[in-house]
Task: inverse folding
């Protein structure tokens, strides 16, 4: 058991920090946000040094480093401390690029990866449909080859930030006579075209991050298919082969800390909510769950670094994090009491206490739905983690 | 940064697990009359693995392997609901090696390290009063009345909590009064004692008392974590084999979701306990915070998990002959001793929390 950095780790830590001092912290504008060009330039420099896009080969614009979770962890640690930007966030980096690296053709990789890295191509994920949520493989959006193009008809839904995306990777039924899973292909397409209509969904928070995307004879080149026809289901399951530098649990720690700030800033019966015995007991109960999740994350990280397996633990993280976030929101609601009647809902995300909290109370509910509903995750834990028999109906 | 057991600790874990699987298989512990004999056999077996010497520094003839290593043994004992005095011996030996004078060390250290002497920790005075801040007995008193002392009947010496800190009282100065009822957790019988204080030997002040108390809380936490995980494992095995409606009940979503929720609750708990033990070993400033909160969290979650396990088992889980209730009672015992979760959360809230 050792929670510090080794001497070699420490050297690398110092190297990254010196780089950040010189290229980021020391060159930030005195006031206001850094210009997009400055951020872009910084990312290029950081990539050149091997700090960003580490799993991506140099020919596609990455830094092509050997997998090293400890180095990844140190880089993340230093960048977070300096509040320096890491990889361009989004589904392009987290989902499409790993998929292309594993299943894409050479020309697809050259065409899409470099521009995705630079943030010029922004990707939406076209998976869910109105009739295909948890039962995703029942999707119906169809693709038919017509000359040199796929012609796509149907509808996708819950597409995050489709309104600001340039492209989509989508699961489309191209082989209607093959089986449920075997009829699906993985297609890439441009969103800015006449056959595509994007409509935002008004969420319970008042915000509109998710979209519906309608396809009416939308078109994409015949060779913008990743992998073989009918092979899309397996391809969409491409596991992320990145080095994992994220430690699960760290994020919930931040959430709990902002709840403590709220509890110290609001009074109940003439004293801070943090000193109210009932609120304090519930917050300390949450602390227990957060600490357990945090050190469970440290353990998983240690196993990854050692090249071993953490068994079923990685399957538990999403559900554990969701349950913590829901309880944080519940306690926040009780701390706010009727003050919640005079707080903003819409557009309050990212605001400071206590204005963020009504949004957080509602927004936490999305966690138990997005990226696979919690009840589906429970099936996965039971079947893959605990080894219980599969339900034959699924 | 390496948050994992060392190879040595893992080998030790395997050795303890093998031993317990061998000696406590099936439902042998559900036969009350067999428990004292099994406890004696466990003591002997754990002696052969040098468990009582784990915590004492090498300079004092111990192994100096730290609380985390002792916690590894503790988790395995919880998993099997094993009766033994070995953990108490290890902690008692550490207290005497750390805070005893040369006379006390000469008298007690060797038999404790060898596992030939047994310790009882005499803390609680009245219901819900356990921790060093709550002890009202004093070295000035002629007698101290203590309750709920685990292993009192076999103890050769008592480490007693007093206002001034800790003191040591020998067996012949104690008059035991057994509880009216058989213990809930048959693996850990307890008794009260009226202790004659005339020859009580001081054994460190209040800081020493809290350090000892923290160690015992961490060991109760990991014991509960072990019991809770074992209750989940039993439920999973049962769900795979029990057939109703023509298929294993584990294929029904209702059972799957219940077991998945149990796993999300209990699986991470041991890592918090590891951390609390590690923080204690390196005397981190947040060690008392972690000890109190780990005890509250682990015992709460373990009881919740074990109760859910009884439900997942159906009728068989409600029988005495099936060993699941031993794990539930083990976790309930861990939760009741050394202050309640509510009190411990209140305590932790007043202590320095880890820096993040």
Result:
């Amino acid at each position: 058991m050792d929670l510090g950095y080794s001497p070699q780790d420490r050297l690398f830590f110092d190297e990254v920090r010196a780089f950040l001092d010189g290229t980021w912290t020391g060159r930030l504008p005195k006031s206001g946000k850094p210009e997009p060009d400055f951020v872009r330039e910084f990312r290029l420099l950081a990539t050149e040094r091997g700090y960003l896009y580490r799993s991506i080969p140099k020919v596609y614009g990455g830094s092509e480093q050997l997998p090293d979770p400890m180095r990844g962890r140190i880089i993340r640690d230093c960048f977070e401390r300096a509040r320096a930007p890491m990889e361009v966030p989004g589904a392009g980096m987290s989902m499409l690029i790993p998929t292309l690296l594993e299943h894409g053709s050479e020309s697809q990789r050259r065409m899409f990866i470099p521009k995705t890295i630079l943030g010029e191509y922004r990707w939406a994920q076209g998976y869910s449909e109105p009739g295909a949520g948890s039962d995703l493989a029942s999707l119906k959006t169809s693709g038919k080859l017509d000359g040199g193009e796929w012609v796509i008809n149907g509808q996708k839904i819950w597409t995050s930030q489709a309104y600001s995306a340039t492209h989509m990777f989508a699961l489309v039924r191209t082989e209607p006579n093959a089986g449920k899973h075997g009829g699906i292909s993985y297609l890439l397409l441009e969103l800015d075209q006449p056959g595509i209509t994007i409509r935002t969904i008004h969420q319970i928070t008042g915000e509109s991050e998710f979209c519906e995307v309608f396809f009416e004879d939308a078109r994409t080149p015949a060779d913008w298919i990743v992998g073989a026809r009918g092979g899309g289901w397996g391809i969409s399951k491409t596991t992320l082969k990145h080095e994992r530098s994220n430690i699960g649990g760290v994020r919930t720690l931040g959430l709990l800390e902002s709840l403590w700030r709220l509890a110290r800033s609001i009074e109940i019966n003439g004293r801070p909510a943090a000193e109210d015995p009932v609120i304090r007991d519930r917050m300390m109960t949450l602390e227990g769950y957060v600490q357990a999740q945090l050190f469970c994350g440290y353990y998983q990280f240690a196993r990854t670094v050692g090249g071993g397996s953490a068994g079923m633990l990685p399957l538990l993280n999403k559900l554990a994090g969701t349950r913590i976030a829901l309880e944080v929101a519940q306690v926040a609601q009780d701390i706010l009491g009727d003050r919640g009647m005079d707080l903003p809902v819409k557009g309050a995300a990212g605001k400071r206490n206590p204005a963020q909290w009504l949004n957080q109370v509602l927004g936490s509910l999305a966690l138990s739905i997005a990226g696979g509903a919690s009840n589906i995750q429970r099936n996965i834990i039971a079947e893959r983690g605990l080894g219980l028999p599969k339900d034959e109906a699924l | 940064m390496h948050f994992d057991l060392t190879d040595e600790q893992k080998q030790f874990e395997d050795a303890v697990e093998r031993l317990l699987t061998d000696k406590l298989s099936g439902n042998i512990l559900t036969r009350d009359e067999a428990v004292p004999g099994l406890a004696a056999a466990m003591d002997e077996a754990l002696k052969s693995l040098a468990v009582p010497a784990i915590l004492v520094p090498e300079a004092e003839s111990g192994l100096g392997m730290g609380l985390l290593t002792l916690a590894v043994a503790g988790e395995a004992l919880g998993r099997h609901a094993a009766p033994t005095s070995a953990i108490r011996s290890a902690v008692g030996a550490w207290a005497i090696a750390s805070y005893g004078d040369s006379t006390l060390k000469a008298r007690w250290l060797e038999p404790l390290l060898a596992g030939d002497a047994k310790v009882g920790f005499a803390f609680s005075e009245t219901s819900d009063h356990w921790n060093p801040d709550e002890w009202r007995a004093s070295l000035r008193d002629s007698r101290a009345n203590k309750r709920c002392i685990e292993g009192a009947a076999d103890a050769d010496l008592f480490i007693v909590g007093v206002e001034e800190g800790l003191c040591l009282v020998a067996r012949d100065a104690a008059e035991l009064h057994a509880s009216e009822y058989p213990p809930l957790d048959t693996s850990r019988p307890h008794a009260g004692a009226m202790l004659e204080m005339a020859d009580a030997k001081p054994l460190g002040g209040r800081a020493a008392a809290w350090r000892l108390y923290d160690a015992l809380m961490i060991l109760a936490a990991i014991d509960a974590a072990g019991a809770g995980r074992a209750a989940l494992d039993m439920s999973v095995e049962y769900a795979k084999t029990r057939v109703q409606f023509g298929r294993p009940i584990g294929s029904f979503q209702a059972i799957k979701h219940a077991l998945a929720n149990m796993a999300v609750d209990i699986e991470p708990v041991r890592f918090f306990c590891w951390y609390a033990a590690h923080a204690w070993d390196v005397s981190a400033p947040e060690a008392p915070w972690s000890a109190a909160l780990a005890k509250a969290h682990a015992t709460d979650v373990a009881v919740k998990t074990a109760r859910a396990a009884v439900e997942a088992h159906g009728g068989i889980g409600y029988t005495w002959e099936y060993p699941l209730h031993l794990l539930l009672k083990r976790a309930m015992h861990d939760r009741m001793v050394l202050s309640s979760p509510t009190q411990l959360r209140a305590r932790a809230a007043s202590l320095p929390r880890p820096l993040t």
Q: What stands out?
A: Chain B has eleven helices and nine strands. The beta strands of chain B are 119-122, 143-150, 157-162, 165-170, 174-178, 190-196, 201-202, 243-244, 247-248. The first helix of chain B runs from residue 7 to 23. The domain at 207-349 of chain B is CATH 1.20.140.10 (Butyryl-CoA Dehydrogenase, subunit A; domain 3).
